[in-house]
Known about the structure:
With 162 residues, the chain is mainly alpha-helical. The chain is built from four helices and no strands. The relative contact order is 0.05.
Amino acid sequence: MDVKYKFFLVGFGIGLLLLVVMYVVTSIRNSRSKKELYDTVKRLKATLNDKMELESEGISKLKEENEKLRKENENFRISLSVAMQKHDQREIARAQVLQTAVDKLLLTSPGFGTAWAAALKEAEEEGERVYSGKVPFFKRIFSSSLRSKDPVLTDGGSDNAL
């Protein structure tokens, strides 16, 4: 049994030696793998940190821009409400047309109804000629004020009076 015992011990020793060698090789590979994983995690953390910083800066810029646009929107809303309270150019033109019609009506009509309609139509046509550039604006203003003061200067509302 002595020989069998020796072979057994030699076989056991060789197996134990192989086990130790395999354990050392596996441990070395495992430590390299752990180091690579640690480096990868470290790199990913740094990348994530950089990305979060950039996104944070972007979000803060977007918030600032959003606030700026809200202020501009409020300013435009206030400006629009102020502008809506001012007289519109069309309203001014319509008032001038109506004033011209009233001036002509006061000068020429004993009957108010039909004369008013005719005078209004004539004043609207005159307003169109002024705004289309056929009659100068200042001439229209001065001739309108002159006609309302002195009926002799007008010739019954024809186009030759302008």
